[in-house]
Every structure is written in structure tokens, then in C-alpha cells.
Amino acid sequence: MFNWAKQQLANVAGTQEPEYGPTAIQVVGTGEGDPAYTELTKDDLKWFTIESTCVETQTFYLHMDSGHIGFLQVIYSNVAGLRITCQFNCKVFYPNNEKPALWSSDPLENYGFDEEQFSFYADGVSVELSEDGSSYTIKSATNDNSLVNVKFTKAAPGFVGGKNGTSNFGTDPKNPWGSMHHAFWPRCNIEGAIITKEGEIDVKGRGLFIHALQGMKPHHAAARWNFANFQSPTYSAVFMEFTTPASYGNTVVHVGGVASDGKLHFAGTSGEVKHLESKQDSENDWPEPTAVSYHWAGKTDDGKDASADLGGSLGDRYDRLDVMAEVPGFVKAIVATAAGTKPYIYQFAPKMTLEVKVGDDIKKEEGNLFTEATFIS
Questions:
Q1: Which of 5, 28, 173, 271 is the most buried (most CB within 10 A)?
Q2: Domain range summary for the chain, segments of one domain joined by +
Q3: From which residue to which does any coiled coil extend (predicted)?
Q4: Measuring CA to CA, which residue among 259, 304, 264 is closest to residue 38?
Q5: CA distances to 81, 122, 284, 345 from 109, in Å
């Protein structure tokens, strides 16, 4: 009971958590009898909108045939059950990073959901799931420099890691005080446009959709993140990894999968990310990665060992985000009192070659990688 009381103080006041140890996180996919992954159904796509502190997002990553890369994102944030705010973000990197990225981030008013919690609405924004659960239509008129009308259609099965895609935090597994959840559509066909003041960007290409819930203060759940989104003519590969703070034993949690049109080759919670080379960022002392490797591992539905590997130089950094400078005031309020919290996101978009091995069959293909390394505390 004392642990619970300390946790509630940390939730409200933003204080540093005690060191509960690695047993205080129940990592996704590690429960007795848990499958490596579970295929998504339409019911798995509902918004959670929990009543306690949380950040919930739906993010649509864009790999456009034109060479543009970007994402569209809705953020729903609840601070201690006291205040709910919503935000719509649009970011587009130009081919070869030839000019500064388009970035717009706008607070939303009069937000709401449909009766079944599948679709999100606010003044000037709608994110609608189709009746059959196979596509999203994203529209936004919140910013004159990024008028959005985009459709994402699922091109391969969606999945969550383990049984339900959720890691739970707390010393009593039956009564967790926090959670982390990710659900993926790893390969989508995208169409539509983003209209900017300089003209229209045709988004036709491939995409990735992620629905995420951080059901606690973000800096309490994770100290570091690694994210990879690879898209090529044949393959899509997604990798999401976070490392908990010392309060949960610096535990590493990862989930990922590899897909092609109409097929999820394998998915699960096995794999590894390595920063092969890095350099010290003179502005904030974080070790900015300059070369990385990603390793996926799992089994196909018919029991064959399967793996995928991707790695090499990250090339020139596309962007470095000082999260505290970029995010809305509500997130600043969440982390304002947390000592040692200085979140930065490093973004890269190099060309790389994915090697996929299924049984004795090995295939390689070049594609575009969008990757982020995030340091929080």
C-alpha cells in the first residue's frame, strides 16, 4: 500500500519514482502462454481515453512516392484526470532534406468521438475509421500551411505484441498503476494530398499506422526510445523499443514485425536495436547516434524461424526536436517538476537495405528508413 501511495504522489507532483525494480513491470508478451503477437480486429482500434494521466496518440507515417517523408498525428492528453487537451501535428520532410521540414502543431477545440470510440473529431479535424475497419481518412483544416486530406488503407494484417500489446507497471500485477500499449498497421497504401502555401504535396505511397497509449507520465514509463519504420517495394518493417527508467530496472521492451502486401511474415517481442556509433551533442550532452542496427526475430505461422536485419550509417540528421520547446503546455506541466528530464528526439531518413530470412530463404531489398532516437532522462 505504501508503494501505491508513493506512486500517486509521483503521478500528481511529478516527483521521481522510487526504485521498484524490474519486477514492477509486466513486459508485453512475457506472460505465461502469451503468443508472440495477436492479429488486430476492428474492436482493437477503439480509443481508450482513460480517466487518469495519459498520452494517447494515433500516428500515420507517410513514405511518399515523391520522396517526401512525414507523419500526421492526433494527441489526446489527460493530466491527472484534471485537464484534457488535444493536438493535431503534421510534419513533412522534403526529398533529401533539401529544405526545412514543414511542421505545424495546433491545439484542438471541441474534441469528441463517435459512439463506439473508433473515430476522432474536433473543430477542423476528423480521423475516421471506415465501417469495415480497413482504412482511415484523416482531414485537417486547422493550419493554412498544411491542409490535410489523406486516406490510409491497410495492406497487410495489423498486430499487437503478445496477447494485447500492453506492458503494465506496478508492484501488484492485478492492479497496475500504469501501462504502455502499441498497435500497428505495418503496411498501408496511402493516397490524398497535403496542401501547403507553396503548393500541393501528393502523398501517394506507403504508410505505417500506430495507435499508442502511455497510461502514465511519459518520463516515468520510459527513459529512452528507439523507433524504426522501413518501407520498400516489397517489405515493411516496424520496430518500437523503449527502456524504462531505473525505477523499473532499466528494463528494455520491444515489439516489431515484418510485412508484405497481404501478409504479416512474422511479429513479436524479440529483437534488438544497437547504436553502433554516436557523437556527443554539444547542446545537451545526449549521445546522438550516427550508425545503428535493428534485428527482428520470430517465427512464421507455419513454424519457420524468421529474422530481419537492417543497419548502417544514418547520414545527415533530418531534425532534432527539443520536446519541451515543441509540445503544448499540458506536456510541459507533466514533466516540469521532474529533475533530469530533458527530452530530445533525433530524426533520420536514410536509404538502407533490409535482409529478410525465412527458413533458409534470404532476400534483400533497398528501401527508405524513417528512424527516431529519443532521450528523455
A1: 28
A2: 37-375
A3: none
A4: 264
A5: 18, 6, 34, 27
